[in-house]
Amino acid sequence: MQKKIKEESRELPVIGSYEVVVAGGGIAGIAAAVAAARNGAKTLIIERYGFLGGTVVSCPMPVVGGYNPEVHTGIMTEIIELLRKNDGVNREFYNEVIGGQMIEVRLDVLKEIAVEMILNAGGDILFHTWISEVMVKNKEIAGIIIESKSGRQAVLAKVVIDTTGDGDIAALAGAAFEVGRKSDGKTQAMTLYGPIMDGVDINKLLSFIREYKKTNPGEILEFIDEENVFAMSGFVSMIKNAREKGDLKLDYNTIWLNGKKDEGWAELSGSFVPDVSGTEVKDLTRAEIDSIRQISSMVSFVKKYVPGFEKARRRDRGSVCIGVRETRRIIGNYILTQDDLVGQRSFADVVARNSTAIDIHTPEGKQNWVRLKAYDIPYRCLISKDMGNLLMAGRCISVTHEALASVRFIPCCVVTGEAAGTAAALAVKQNISPVNIDVPLLQKMLNIHPGSTNGN
């Protein structure tokens, strides 16, 4: 039994009263805060780090994967255009497997753009702040308790949007949520984004990949070989062989390589940490340690086994955190399923659309893909069934384990963030619960129309 102590009660200073509080400054939170502020709501976004961008920046995961400009419109399109305009894009290419554009962005530019978008919209930002508790009254969140260098304080709110990724606000408020797959509750494996290797002989590397693809059919799972970019995943038997010899400490049977042909570098990825919880600090610590060891082993592996890496050296990337794919999924008034996605089911209350493939990194070490066409995300998936003024966006919305594997990608996080932020502002303006807002008016504000998905 865990030992416990009793904390003394105390009065806390209220540092602000807002109409909309966005909890979490990741990519979904950015879109939610911009949308809420632009639509006239007094808005605050709270972020534990000293920058916006969340997983995209802290892992880092600098590739906006599966972007479809015909599906991911609004603020998502605006962010891409601002990145292009401000020299914030390193490269772009189409990935047929994932079903959209892969846009590698410059993270410093993204951070700058995000801050300016929120401030220009009239929103407030609070960095270096951790949300520790929520105040609940009559099944609504009255405010949140925060912790920072300034101590323990309170912020009041009319509507709260959970964009923590982990559904932290919902969990603290006592709202219902689900974790993992239905059979055993296990979540997708975690991954530490791999290092960039400089000094790679790209011609030698690509010649080897092409030859390996011929002599080992089916072992190169993906190979993009365009004018100035390349990307691949595979080397299944070579990985197994190296692991049996003790030359590779990796339980996954695939590694990913990508890079630019004219710049002599390649990026590695493929660390794999299963059976850990993204909401347990000891698990997160173990995941960080295991993934660091795996990355070190992968570097040694490519230098020994993959021609072209003989003289390559790791580039210093500074602070990098483990990438968490799945934790809590808040239960809303509807739970979106894989059948809904695959069948392109139409919803009368559609407020966002996505087309990125389902990509599941199983605890058993497999990667399962299901390609998709554009599908609807209903407003009911963004509303907690238990808390009248709690909305959610990003990877903690109301979906199944399988559907999350598509929803968790950056473009979908942005479009659900914009929908939640717009809905929150509308609820404040109409002085009603988000559950009762005029959905057709919300759709008009988002420029999204029911029944226009099939065939896209």
How many domains? The number is 2
**Helix content range:** 25-40%
Which range does the strand content fall in? 25-35%
The radius of gyration over CA amounts to 22 Å
What is the general shape?
Answer: globular
First-to-last CA distance: 55 Å
Average residue pLDDT: 95
CATH class of the largest domain: Alpha Beta
Query: Which oligomeric form is depicted?
Result: single chain
Total beta-strand segments: 22
CATH topology of the largest domain: FAD/NAD(P)-binding domain
Could you characterize what this model shows?
The chain has 456 residues and is of the alpha+beta class. It has two domains: 14-184 and 326-446, FAD/NAD(P)-binding domain, CATH 3.50.50.60; 196-314. The chain contains twelve helices and 22 strands. The chain has helices spanning 27-38, 55-58, 75-85, 107-121, 168-173, 202-215, 236-244, 281-305, 338-342, 401-407, 410-430, 439-446; strands at 14-23, 43-46, 63-67, 89-95, 100-105, 124-126, 130-137, 140-148, 151-162, 177-179, 196-198, 220-225, 229-234, 255-260, 265-269, 313-314, 328-330, 350-354, 358-361, 367-370, 375-378, 390-392. Strands 1, 2, 6, 7, 8, 9 and 22 form a seven-stranded mixed sheet that branches. A hairpin with a 4-residue loop joins strand 4 (89-95) and strand 5. Helix 1 (27-38) runs parallel beside helix 4 and helix 1 (27-38) runs parallel beside helix 11. The longest helix has 25 residues, at 281-305. The mean pLDDT is 95.
